[in-house]
Specification:
mainly beta; four-stranded antiparallel beta sheet; 339 residues; Neuraminidase; globular
Length: 339
């Protein structure tokens, strides 16, 4: 009864907040990603770059013609107050974003907890909110634009607990309906769930769930993101045996599967793909598609698979050559513009 009541409460609030998504398809704003500049794996303990490393939250023009800093956090190992991390998502109106926060582990931990940060779209006005579970990270905003979905992984990394957190008041409620796994809400209120068995689409109104992409020993699916109209999903597909990855799209009912982009070689790692607010392109990170860059980069591509474009490389952020390396993402977020 408790699960049913909670799911019903969420459904009612989503239906009442449909206007928050009324501008979709929207216009494409900037693409946000986290960049970590640090020592490489061969640097010694007393290498100067250990103390000179930093994290940078950047927002990139979708055409690739410029980027701006939304925040700078020196020294990734200096975490007294925690540093922002890779997982992030823009609110439906594009005015705010939610970002994962990495905090120092304090032992003994009586009640495991994590933090997320709510920022204005320009990186200001940071408010940190506590969520249950270690290593909890945000996955998406709910359609009402007032709450965010947070996933706290279990030991397997997929079968953890899901929560919705009030962006203004920090109120936390656990979501228990449907399969367990990382969740993303669509503009229609349907929920995509990345489970160990594959990707489910769950309807909170009817309670119906459908396995639209089934994982197996040969292929796994994860990191699903909704198109702006809620009709399709873009999903990351991996082949454990060949170590090949691909970005695919699929209809919400599991039909009309299409390969957007295949990794060119084994071990070419893609980050979770996200759909543009206009629905015209898909953004993702990869470390193997732009040979000019020594680090991973941000790319966009059309859903048809044509028009691959490099929009950001992190090399200019590296302060000097030597032991420094730069990593981008792996997650990105695409800001919607309304009006």
């Amino acid at each position: 009864m408790r699960s049913t009541a909670l799911a019903g409460a969420i459904v009612l609030s989503l239906i009442g907040a449909a206007d928050a998504w009324g501008t979709f398809p929207g216009r494409d704003g900037r693409i946000a990603a986290m960049v970590a500049v640090r020592c490489d794996e061969y640097a010694g303990e007393f290498d100067p770059c250990v103390s000179e490393g930093f994290s940078e939250l950047v927002a990139v023009a979708p055409g690739g013609n410029g980027w701006r800093s939304l925040g700078h956090w020196p020294c990734p190992k200096c975490m007294e107050g925690g540093v922002l991390r890779a997982r992030l998502a823009y609110s439906p109106d594009g005015r705010r974003m939610v970002v994962e926060v990495l905090t120092p582990v304090i032992e003994p931990a009586t009640t495991p907890s994590s933090l997320v940060a709510i920022l204005a779209s320009d990186g200001s006005s940071q408010v940190r909110l506590g969520v249950p579970g270690l290593l909890g990270f945000p996955t998406s905003w709910l359609p009402d634009g007032r709450r965010v979905a947070v996933f706290a992984p279990g030991e397997s990394g997929v079968s953890g607990r899901s929560f919705v957190v009030g962006a203004d008041d920090g109120a936390v409620r656990e979501v228990t309906g449907g399969p367990r796994g990382e969740r993303k809400w669509s503009s229609t209120g349907a929920v995509a769930i990345a489970h160990s068995r594959g990707v489910y689409v769950w309807n909170p109104v009817t309670g119906r769930r459908r396995l639209i992409l089934a994982s197996s020993d040969r292929v796994t699916y994860a990191a699903a993101d909704w198109s702006p109209d809620g009709r399709r999903l873009v999903v990351l597909r991996s082949e454990p045996l060949t170590r090949l990855q691909a970005i695919v799209t699929v209809a919400a009912d599991g039909g009309d599967r299409r390969v957007v982009l295949r990794g060119p070689a084994p071990g070419c790692q893609f980050g979770p793909p996200v759909w543009a607010p206009s629905g015209k392109r898909i953004a993702f990170t990869a470390g193997c598609l732009d040979l000019r860059s020594a680090a991973s980069a941000v790319f966009t591509v059309r859903p048809s698979g044509v028009g691959l474009r490099t929009v950001f490389v992190a090399d200019p952020l590296i302060p000097k050559q030597g032991s420094f390396v730069a990593g981008v993402g792996p997650a990105v977020a695409w800001r919607p513009l309304s009006g």
